[in-house]
Write a structure and sequence with these properties.
Layout lengths: L1 H7 L9 H15 L12 H16 L1
């Protein structure tokens, strides 16, 4: 969520170059997308994406 991103990342944002910013964002997104979320039934966004991809594959076969 935007609120979580604000609390976990943007409030502490400090970067020295554009490349440094990209590196920090990549690291944050990797970590954030692997944190279980209540709204997703306590699974991570990555796990939810994988479930949805599997469900779509089942519909197309």
């Amino acid at each position: 969520s935007h609120r979580n991103d604000q609390n976990r990342f943007y409030n502490y944002l400090s970067f020295y170059s554009y490349d440094d910013l990209l590196k920090q964002m990549k690291t944050y997104l990797k970590r954030s997308n692997n944190i279980p979320m209540q709204v997703l039934g306590w699974i991570s966004p990555i796990e939810k994406r994988n479930q949805l991809k599997y469900n779509i594959q089942q519909l197309t076969f």
